[in-house]
Amino acid sequence: MEFHDYYQTLGVSRDASADEIKKAFRRLARKYHPDISKEADAEARMKAVNEAYAVLSDPEKRAAYDRLGQNYQAGQDFRPPPDWGEAYEFSTHGFSPGEEAEFSDFFSQLFGGPGGFRRQGGGHFRTPGGDVRAEVLLDLDDSFNGATRQLSLQLPQTDAQGRVRWVTRSLNVKIPQGVHEGQIIRLAGQGAPGMGGGPAGDLLLEVRIKPHARLRTEGRDLRMTLPLAPWEAALGATVAVELPNGHLKVRIPEGAQSGRQLRVRGKGIPGTPPGDLLLDLQVVLPPADTPAARQLYETMAQELAFDPRPSAKQ
Amino acid sequence: MREQDLLIGSLLEETWMTLEQVAAACAVEPDWLRRHIDEGLFPHAECVAGVWRFTRVGLVRARRMRQLERDFDAAPELAALMADLLEEMDHLRTRLRQTGT
Questions:
Q1: Which positions fall inside the J domain (chain A) (predicted)?
Q2: How confident is the model over A45-102, as pLDDT tens digits?
């Protein structure tokens, strides 16, 4: 097991005051905030920062850590002294047992985290494991039809010695029909293991839908731009719209204009209730690139009393 | 359970969470949530027949606010304001992703 230099993690000196430690933690908590940070390893860095702060912000833990770690460097091979378990009694505050379950082996060995030897004999802690979050990226077709996805996830697992390690687990997950962007699929009992016989947390899979060439999703509603020829818009027409579950014939009322929206109820992503299909109409002009096409435009110009800018004369 | 067994989950959107479930998932006391609801800091929570219920948006909000209050000693109103802004950012990011840009 490697020694963790918590002072190095927070970027403070060993004689830093409690206030300096708090300030350093806040600066890093802002830098690696999961909603804001653009750092690739922000989540792992935030866990390390939380772990360091959990120890250095607690006077009891800090004193014990200082006494133990004065001769160690970061990364050096480390074993806690045999009498460590009897020498100290730590309380938990600030971070939940679920959060502490995600801290390193080093932390759990020293401060009685999940599976640490300090809790093996006692068994008086019985706390549920934390939830684990992950994303699942789906095609729009999967929303319509449902799917089965094999996911490879880093999940905490308790080994034979009761220590928590991050292991890669392969899970086969059924994606129900009708899922949409942002929804969460909860897999009960597949999250972090509990402590002292407590139940495991849940695995929360957040659904992400890959961008589609033509269709956008808004909850269960589907939205797309529907190009129309001028005569389809002016005279009305029935046009075919291609959706992931087949073709749909949509009637365009006569006199349709660009910018108008048609709502086809119940033809979005399936569900209870199903979403709607929203069509943004866009009239597309044929190019006047042949004599015949030019002639048709000239005839319209001469014979139609059409002013597209009536307000411009006022 | 074998690793290759097919797991069938439940959709959080369609299964409401109780106040106690949200509190447990966020490692906070139920009273912390009740206090914040009473102060109007959880606009997403719904009360039906005297029972509070939450969707996943409420769960994410509770986690964010608890983290902001703990990490920065933020006042609950400030944590709620930050949560509002983060929710707006989630919404805009989702729209951006949907347009494929």
A1: 5-69
A2: 888 899 999 899 988 888 888 888 777 777 777 777 766 655 555 555 567 666 676 7
Instruction: Report chain A residues whose CB lies below 8 A from the CB of B17.
Output: none
Cα–Cα distances in angstroms (integers) from residue A201 to residues A127, A296, B38, in the given order: 10, 69, 28
Could you say which of A29, A187, A218 has the minimum Cβ distance to residue B7? Answer: A187
Q: Which residues in chain A are contacts of B6 at CB distance < 8 A?
A: 148, 172-174
Among the listed residues A135, A134, A126, A136, the one whose alpha carbon sits nearest the alpha carbon of residue A193: A126
The β-bridge relationship of strands B6-8 and A164-175 is parallel
Q: Each residue of A249-266: pLDDT tens digit?
A: 999 999 999 999 999 999
pTM of the model: 0.60
The separation between CA A197 and the C-alpha centre of its own chain, rounded to angstroms, equals 29
What are the structural domains, with CATH classification, of chain B?
12-98 (1.10.1660.10)
- The answer to whether the CB of A191 falls within 8 A of the CB of B24 is no
For an interface test with A, the pick among B56, B66, B98 (most A C-beta atoms closer than 10 Å) comes out as B98
The domains found in chain A, sorted by start residue, are 6-120 (1.10.287.110), 132-209 (2.60.260.20), 216-303 (2.60.260.20)
Q: Which of A22, A125, A172 to mutate to test the interface with B (most CBs of B within 10 A)?
A: A172
